[in-house]
Amino acid sequence: MTSEPFLFIDDQPISTGQILNYLQATRKLDAFIGDIVRQFVIERELQAQENAGVNPAVVEQAVVDFRLNNQLTDPNQFQQWLAENGLTYEAFHNQIAGSFRLKKLKEDVTAAKLPEYFIERKVFLDRVVLSRIIVDDKELAEELKTQLQEGAAFEQLAREYSLTDDRIMNGMVGPVSRGTMPDLLRAEMDLAKPGDVVGPIGMEGRWGLFRVEAILSASLDDPQIKQSLEDEIFEQWLADRMQTIPIRLQVPD
Q: PpiC domain: from which residue to which, for each copy (predicted)?
C-alpha cells in the first residue's frame, strides 16, 4: 500500500515517508517532531482550560490595532496582505484569538511559581553599570587606586593605562549582570554604591579597578522582566509535559 502524496515539487509527488526521510537525512527530524508534540500539548491544554473563551470585542480591537500599526486600514491592502501570507480573514482572526488564549494559559501556569522563580533568578537579572581599568601589575593597580583617592580622573587613567578595548570609551563597560560576574567582583558589588571604586581585584592574571556608575535592580514591576520569566517558566512546564507523552513514529510505505 502506498501513501498519498503530501505535496508536489516540480509536479513530482512527494510522500509523507519521503519527507520524513529527508528530515532524518538532514538531522531535522527530531526538531520537526518536537515542534509537533509541543503544539499538541498546547492545543490539548487549551481545550481543557476552563473559561478559555476570549471576549470577541477584545479580539476585534486587536485586529483593528494590528491593521492600524501595520498601515493596513485599506480593505484592499489588507486582503492583499492576507493573500501574501497565505491567510484568510477567518484564519487571521483565529490566530489573534489563539494568542489571547495562549496568554491566559501562560498566566495560569506561571502565576503561582513566578514570585519564587524571580527570587531564584534575581542575581542574574540585577545589573550594575561599570567602568573599569584593567592592568597587568598589582602594584600599578594599587598606585592607580591611590591616584583616584587623591582626585585623579577615572576616565583619564582608563584611557592612559587600561589594557582593554573599552579604554577608548573611558573604561565604560555598561550594564553587567551580577550573576555573570566573578565571585570576588560580585561580593564587592553587593557592598558598593554608585560612585564607589572597588579593587584592585585579581582576575585571570590581571588586576582591575571598577567604578560603579549605576545599580539597576530588577523588579517584577518591569513588564519585560515579568514576560521573560513567564516565558521561561512556561517553556520548562511545557518541556516537562512533553517528556511524559509516549510517541510512536510510523513511517508510511
A: 125-214
Q: What pLDDT is recorded for position 1?
A: 43
Weakest mean pLDDT among 23-37, 50-64, 121-135:
50-64
Residue 72 corresponds to which cell in the numbers above? 493596513
Question: Across the beta sheet with 172-177, what order do the strands follow?
Answer: 172-177, 127-135, 206-216, 197-203
In this structure, the dihedral spanned by the alpha carbons of residues 107, 113, 119 and 122, taken in order and rounded to 10 degrees, is -40
Say whether both 102 and 138 belong to one domain: no
Is the same domain home to 207 and 175? yes
Residue environment code for 217-234, b if the CB has 16+ CB neighbours within 10 A, otherwise e: ebeeeeeebeeebbeebb
Question: Which residue shows C-alpha cell 509536479?
Answer: 11
Nearest of 185, 217, 215, 212 to residue 131 by alpha carbon: 212
* Mean pLDDT on 165-186: 88
Radius of gyration of the CA atoms of the chain, in A: 28
